[in-house]
Structures are given as structure tokens and as C-alpha cells.
């Protein structure tokens, strides 16, 4: 039996799976939306924006953009990445200190942790370094948590920001920030962008791009197949990946090196792809 890593790879002449669900900057596809989203992230950092916000649907490519940003960020910038931070007062500060590699003493008080962070920021500033904190999945923060995040931007030196925040999350994050209770936080947001789903043309280019990166020709999917995949996935990159992975698997089992309408129809008919069901539920809520 073929190994789980092989399957259709040799059959299509690929050196790796082109449609894994894990974010991989090596497969980065620069759709017009992703280019603009990335430009906003860069602008936020270069302009020393207190808070930059990036939102988008699940699987829209937010994490991939962040990983690409991390790979290109200047050495003079200290970055702390906080994924899925939750908790109340004090707990969030522990996430921050941990992300920056700062040691936590035995049961430190909130004041001690805040002072430790402030001392670190002042020290970095004195050495000509800036600190950027990235909160991924920030929609999971409570209103109280977001307020505590905002309080971090109060640590400054004259007109210079000692710390910059990038909040990344699903569309609910926008709703949280626009809450009237969050007026002070909203005033600190200097740059923001929402990643919409890809259009039909972008989905076709996305599929061909990933096939080429994986060692293929990019012509393994017919134009009509790409159109049907767009209809099934509504342009969500993660769902496109899931569907295309199944499509290649089906083509391999059918011993055909072309994913056409028939292959796409088989994937849909067999019910192995669940993404469309989640989209239907989302649209009826």
C-alpha cells in the first residue's frame, strides 16, 4: 500500500502535496487581495501604527500572510507571536511575556509583570529596537481582553511608540473592535484590512500556481473543473485546498492525469468533501 505521503505524487510527477491544509509560505499565492492585505501589514509596521488589524474568513490566508511577514521582518524589530490567547486580567500579560521570551517568576503580581514588560520595552527602545506583538485568532479575546491589549499601547516614550500591536482574526474581531465600548481602542487602529474570498479567476490561478510550486505543470485541472471548484468552495483558500486534494486523489484512482468536470462531480457525489456543508450553514445563519 502506498505511504500516506505518496498517494498521487509520483503519478502526477509532484515532489510534495500541493494542497495541504497547513499554512505554508512556500506556496504563497499573491492574489490582488492578499497583496493589498500584506501591504497594509507592512504599512502598519513601517508607519509605527499603534494597532493594525487584519481580518478574514476562516481559511482566507491570514496566518500565511503573518508567517510571510515574520520571514521578512527586519532584524531591528523584536516580534512576539501570540496564538489563540485567552483569559482575563493578568493572564493575557503572561501570554505577552512568554511570547517575548521573558521569564516569569513564582506567582508574580500583575504590577510586577507589567513593570517587567515596561522595563523590557524601554530597554529595547534604548538599543534602537522596536517591539511588535502579533495576536493571531484575536477574535477569541473578550472585550476586557481587548481593553487590556489597548492598555499596552499606553507605554510610550514622548511621541515614539515602544510597542506596536497587530490583531489578526475572523470577521467577529471587527465587530468586537467596533463595539461602542471599544472606542478608545478603535482610535488607536491606524491600519486595517479585511481579506475577502477569492473570485473565480483567482481560484483558477491559485490552483495552477500551487501545482507548479509542487512540481507540476499547472495544467492538471481543466478550466471547467476550476470553475466548479470555485462554486463548491466559494473561493475560500483552505476549502479549495481540501477539495483539490480529493480531486487529485480521485484522478489517481481513476488513472487519469487530468482533473475534469467528471472528477469534480465524483468528489461531490461521494460526499467526501464537507466544506460545502459548512458554507451552506454559514449562509443560512
Automatic annotation (TrEMBL):
Task: Give the AAA+ ATPase domain ranges.
Answer: 48-199
Sections of the chain in a coiled coil:
none
- Span-the-membrane segments of this chain are none
Q: Which Pfam families match?
A: AAA_22 (PF13401)
Q: Which InterPro entries match?
A: AAA+_ATPase, AAA_22, ExeA_AAA_ATPase_DNA-bind, P-loop_NTPase
Query: Superkingdom, according to UniProt?
Result: Bacteria
Which PANTHER family does the protein's record reference? GENERAL SECRETION PATHWAY PROTEIN A-RELATED, PHOSPHORIBULOKINASE _ URIDINE KINASE FAMILY
Q: What is this protein called?
A: ATPase
In the record, what lineage is assigned to the organism producing the protein?
Answer: Bacteria, Pseudomonadati, Pseudomonadota, Alphaproteobacteria, Rhodobacterales
